[in-house]
């Protein structure tokens, strides 16, 4: 049995019971022996690292004294041999097998320090001192953290029941380890060849010193030590294995225990039984959540049994942890696979965030996690396991991250790292890409330093071979330190609210908001203020210099300068810098033009305060000043400032096209809409949508980044850096660089054979190698991009990211938003079906008179405006005088009616009007269904002649509006004559069908993503020429039930994605990108912005309310033409 953990410091607290580190049976401590010789928190490691730092300081002092006093130096041959042994993986492995890892590190470090001190090499010792100081500070911080946490770590430990099997196969090496392995051969061969060729052992020693991979190790150590110190100082993580943070760059699979992604609070998932659609039953089920003793699972809803029938049952499940979404999003940013197991409770809406979900197959969760980890390890992956109780899986993982459970649960002491919760897990995952990038930079610095150091070995070249190695190591220290500091200082993500406001009654919403102590304050001024234009320019230059060609050209230029050709180096350097400045200036210019284009005043919000006497005060505030629980009022043409739950309304209709893609205004209601998708939550207002008609009063439930429309932005990992000619050239250079190096080496060798001076021969070889790099091509590409962008601007196209012009030529699939992109988001009557002897003119006349405008003004409702436009060609259709009486649409009354003289005209929902018509021909239901299948919104139109008694009743009630409305409503209940139906749809944008046809001709697949109903989406797709079957349409709810791998298969097979939320749109684009497709996303609304940013090429169309899409896009169509 492995030891539980070290004996904690006994004097931390009187009476504290330390946890024994000695196994009950010493004979069992073999296969599962401690991962480290020093136990965490006992101070041994801190003392050892401090001692090594002290010895490095002593050695540095000796070396400085030796340089000043001109002491005799140890020969370079001896120094090189001793230092080289420290960086030979095979030698180190043999020592570790015999004396242990820590002892081997100490022995090799002492030998290297002594050799460098005796060789009077203060610069090398200064770097060693810095590295050892980093380690000592990390160990000291970790010891303090263990001491602070000791009182909370005295519970029993969750340990594996038996020793875990040895890892098979051996864990794959990371970037640093691979480089050390390769470099060991280069070092050994290079030193040997140099010694034999020159017959000078000191030159062989200098060759060994010049090829020491010091930059690679120093970068990794600085990063890991700084990160470890930061985590310990913030009490975000405790290290059980001090080497765990040095393995971060190897991790490519993260397996999460599904239990750690759940919170302690429960939520209502769904109902089953006779009352599952009864709102009152839903409200009673919601009330059950107030019971603190409620457990997950199915429970009967009180009072839901009807007669002798069974009671309706409610399913309660744990709500996702507020940081679960951010944690899983971080795995995508880290470009690692996210895997979990599918237990009984499931992962719910988190399912799409996982690349793979493994079934339990009869195992416990812990056994399934262990089996999954072993499977991925056998496939050659490095695996991290995150759990609070799966001891064996944590022990078997390449990196085990244990989460401290509740007070009465055992502790996960088989882990390598212990964190408090998902905040610590997020920090570790946030460090994964930074660790990989730090290792990559360390390897590049090491290669470059060794290459330049080798050139300095040439007798006629001024300089010392090890000098570039020391400079590279120092640069690696700074690089690793700043990378880790950025990780440590990164802000924790915002917790995602888990409340389902749309499923609650108004009273439940009031109580929940009143009980919540959370509030969303305005963003910091520093965050919201626009950065100085100089810093924007410098950031753009930095991005351009991150081109893959830059390190190669920089190394070549430096080598050329060392070999005596500074003019050539200056030319190459000027090409690099001028190209970066030109491209950055072009991008910044486009940004400034776009900012001027989008400059506008943010619409204010109306905040309402209710006094004790019931009077209401209205005050204008900025949307960012709102907080959860505030009461806001909205009216016609208002832009909704925040997500909110409606508590009062009057004939409220909202245009939600910018969020859901629904082309028709949505009629709002007060009643809850439990179990509804975003597009069907009629009791909610969403930020960024526009009020089409009516007024409403609502309680703010989310502001700023927590709103539905902006939540999708958290799913976007980063902008693509692998587009454009620069990336293509980088890939070509990576393939040809080894060949060009061989060619350069052959040229140098031939020069030596021809007795050319060594410096000249090597210079010729370097020139040949550098000549294979197309350093002029980026400049040519940048100039071509600038010219193309300038020409496109004249055509109404603004190119914000120049590289996107090239990437457009490599697009594999184009995703289109429907509403506002392929269509104009403007309704029109596209179908008129009359009944019997009634004419089209009569039908349109009655339809337009059923909803007269107020005092001759334009119609606010988009449906009414479409009918008016269709009836303009009918003589006498538009009434010159106002209606004698009018019954408007409202929630619960799906029709509108008007009285002109003796005629009552009515239009509304077909199912309601058909029931009120006396004699209706057979087949009318089929007509309605047929029109609906064509993606049309269908309205029935009817009329009725009123007799004198009925007219007298309406006239008598003229002074009492409510009585008149009631009387008119009764007249609409029966006795109607059906005239026919009108079909209304969104207007296709001019050129949409031709564009899709051209893409089809060029064999570029198309995906249409919409918030509309699947029937509407399929019908619109067919009208625009897309030939598809019902199996090629998928809805948002179906999409959310798929794992990441399943989504990748779905995007390859499906064409229309209906009822998709902004987050769903991002996931569709990301699934295409993960499957290896170069995607373009075309959209116009705020709901498209995140998906536009996620695509390789984002294209924004100028339309009303599309500022967010413009800001995210690489290319902006200024004239709105697609």
From TrEMBL:
**Which segments constitute the P-type ATPase A domain?**
619-716
**A Gene Ontology molecular-function term?**
ATP hydrolysis activity
* Coiled-coil intervals: none
Q: Where located?
A: Cell membrane
Q: How does this chain sit within the bilayer?
A: Multi-pass membrane protein
Q: Which GO terms describe its cellular component?
A: plasma membrane
Asked if the record carries the keyword Membrane, the reply is: yes
Task: Identify the main location.
Answer: membrane
Q: Where is this region: Disordered?
A: 148-172
- According to the lineage, what is the superkingdom? Bacteria
Keywords from UniProt, A to Z, are: Cell membrane, Membrane, Translocase, Transmembrane, Transmembrane helix
Does the record carry Cell membrane as a key word? yes
Protein name from the UniProt record: Haloacid dehalogenase
Instruction: Specify the species.
Output: Mycolicibacter engbaekii
């Amino acid at each position: 049995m492995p030891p539980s953990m070290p004996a904690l410091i006994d004097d931390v607290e009187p009476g504290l019971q330390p946890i024994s580190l000695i196994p009950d049976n010493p004979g069992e401590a073999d296969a599962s022996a401690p991962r480290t010789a020093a136990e965490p928190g006992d101070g041994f490691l801190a003392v050892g690292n401090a001692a090594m730092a002290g010895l490095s300081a002593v050695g540095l002092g000796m070396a400085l004294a030796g340089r000043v006093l001109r002491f005799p130096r140890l020969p370079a041959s001896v120094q090189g041999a001793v230092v080289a042994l420290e960086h030979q993986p095979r030698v180190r492995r043999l020592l570790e097998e015999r004396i242990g890892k820590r002892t081997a590190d100490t022995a090799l470090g002492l030998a290297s320090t002594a050799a460098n001190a005796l060789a009077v090499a203060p610069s090398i010792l200064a770097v060693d001192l810095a590295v050892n100081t980093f380690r000592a500070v990390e160990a000291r911080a970790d010891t303090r953290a263990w001491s602070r946490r000791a009182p909370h770590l005295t519970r029993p430990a969750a340990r594996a029941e038996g020793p875990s099997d040895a890892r098979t196969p051996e864990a794959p090496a990371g970037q640093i380890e691979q480089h050390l392995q390769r470099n060991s051969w280069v070092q050994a061969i290079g030193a040997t060849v140099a010694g034999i060729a020159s017959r000078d052992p000191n030159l062989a020693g200098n060759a060994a010193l010049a090829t020491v991979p010091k930059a690679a190790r120093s970068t990794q150590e600085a990063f890991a030590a700084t990160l470890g110190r930061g985590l310990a100082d913030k009490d975000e993580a405790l290290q059980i294995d001090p080497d765990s943070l040095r393995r971060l760059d190897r991790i490519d699979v993260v397996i999460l225990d599904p239990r750690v992604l759940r919170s302690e609070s429960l939520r209502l998932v769904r109902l089953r039984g006779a009352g599952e659609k009864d709102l009152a039953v839903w409200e009673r089920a919601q009330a059950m959540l107030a019971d603190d003793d409620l457990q997950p699972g199915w429970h009967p809803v009180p009072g839901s049994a009807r007669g002798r029938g069974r009671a309706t049952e409610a399913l309660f499940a744990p709500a996702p942890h507020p940081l679960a979404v951010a944690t899983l999003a971080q795995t995508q940013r880290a470009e690692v696979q996210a895997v979990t197991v599918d237990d009984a409770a499931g992962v719910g809406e988190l399912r799409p965030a996982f690349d793979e979900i493994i079934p339990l197959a009869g195992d416990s969760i812990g056994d399934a996690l262990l089996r999954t980890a072993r499977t991925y390890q056998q496939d050659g992956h490095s695996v991290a396991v995150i759990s609070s109780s799966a001891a064996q899986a944590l022990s078997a993982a390449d990196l085990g991250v244990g989460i401290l459970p509740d007070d009465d649960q055992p502790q996960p002491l088989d882990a390598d790292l212990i964190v408090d919760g998902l905040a610590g897990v997020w920090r570790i995952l946030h460090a994964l890409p930074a660790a990989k990038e730090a290792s990559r930079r360390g390897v590049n610095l090491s290669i470059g330093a060794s290459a330049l150091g080798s050139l300095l070995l040439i007798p006629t070249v001024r300089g010392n071979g090890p000098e570039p190695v020391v400079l590279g190591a120092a640069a690696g220290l700074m690089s690793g330190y700043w990378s880790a500091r950025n990780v440590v200082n990164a802000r924790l993500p915002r917790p995602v609210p888990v409340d389902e406001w749309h499923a609650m009654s108004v009273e439940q919403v009031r109580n929940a908001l009143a009980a919540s102590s959370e509030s969303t304050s305005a963003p910091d001024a520093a965050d919201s203020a626009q950065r100085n234009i100089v810093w924007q320019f410098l950031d753009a230059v930095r991005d351009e210099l991150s081109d893959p060609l830059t390190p190669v050209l920089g190394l070549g230029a430096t080598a050329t300068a060392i070999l005596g050709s500074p003019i050539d180096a200056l030319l190459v350097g000027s090409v690099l810098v001028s190209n970066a400045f030109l491209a950055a200036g072009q991008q910044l210019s486009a940004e400034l033009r776009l900012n001027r284009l989008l400059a506008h005043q943010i619409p204010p919000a109306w905040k309402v305060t209710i006094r004790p006497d019931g009077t209401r005060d209205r005050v204008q505030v900025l949307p960012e000043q709102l907080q959860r629980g505030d009461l806001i009022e909205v009216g016609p043409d208002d832009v909704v400032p925040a997500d909110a739950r409606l508590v009062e309304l009057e004939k409220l209709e909202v245009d939600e096209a910018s969020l859901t893609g629904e082309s028709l205004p949505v009629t709002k209601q007060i009643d809850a809409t439990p179990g509804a998708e975003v597009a069907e939550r009629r009791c909610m207002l969403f930020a960024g949508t526009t009020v089409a008609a009516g007024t409403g009063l609502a309680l703010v439930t989310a502001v700023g980044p927590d709103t539905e429309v902006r939540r999708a932005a958290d799913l976007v990992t980063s902008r693509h850096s692998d587009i454009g000619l620069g990336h293509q050239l980088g890939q070509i250079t990576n393939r040809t660089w080894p060949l060009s190096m061989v060619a350069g080496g052959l040229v140098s060798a031939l020069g030596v054979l021809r007795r050319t001076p060594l410096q000249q021969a090597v210079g010729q070889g370097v020139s040949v190698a550098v000549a294979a790099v197309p350093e002029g091509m980026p400049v040519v590409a940048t100039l071509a991009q600038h010219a193309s962008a300038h020409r496109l601007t004249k055509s109404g196209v603004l190119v914000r990211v120049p590289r996107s012009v090239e990437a457009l030529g490599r697009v594999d699939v184009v995703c289109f938003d429907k509403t506002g992109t392929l269509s104009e988001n403007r309704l029109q009557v596209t179908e008129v079906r009359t009944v019997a002897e009634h004419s089209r003119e009569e039908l349109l006349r009655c339809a337009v008179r059923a909803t007269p405008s107020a005092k001759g003004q334009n119609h606010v409702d988009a449906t009414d405006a479409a009918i008016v436009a269709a009836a303009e060609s009918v003589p006498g259709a538009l009434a010159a005088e106002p209606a004698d009486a009018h019954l408007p649409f409202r929630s619960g009354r799906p029709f509108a009616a008007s009285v002109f003289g003796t005629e009552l005209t009515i239009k509304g929902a077909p199912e309601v009007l058909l029931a009120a018509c006396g004699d209706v021909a057979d087949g009318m239901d089929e007509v309605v269904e047929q029109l609906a299948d064509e993606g049309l919104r269908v309205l029935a139109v009817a009329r009725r002649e009123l007799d004198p008694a009925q007219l007298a009743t309406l006239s008598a009630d003229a002074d009492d509006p409510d009585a008149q409305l009631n009387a008119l409503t009764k007249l609409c209940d029966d006795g109607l004559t059906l005239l026919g139906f009108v079909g209304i749809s969104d207007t296709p944008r001019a050129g949409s069908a031709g564009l899709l046809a051209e893409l089809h001709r060029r064999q570029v697949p198309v995906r249409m993503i919409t918030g509309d109903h699947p029937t509407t989406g399929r019908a619109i797709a067919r009208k625009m020429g897309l030939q598809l079957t019902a199996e090629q349409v998928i809805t948002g709810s179906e999409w959310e039930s798929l794992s990441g791998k399943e989504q990748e298969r779905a995007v390859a097979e499906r064409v229309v994605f209906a009822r998709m939320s902004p987050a769903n749109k991002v996931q569709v684009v990301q699934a295409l990108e993960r499957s290896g497709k170069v995607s373009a996303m075309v959209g116009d609304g705020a709901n498209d912005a995140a998906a536009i940013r996620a695509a390789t090429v984002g294209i924004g169309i100028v339309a009303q309310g599309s500022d967010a899409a413009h800001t995210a896009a690489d290319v902006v169509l200024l004239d709105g033409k697609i």
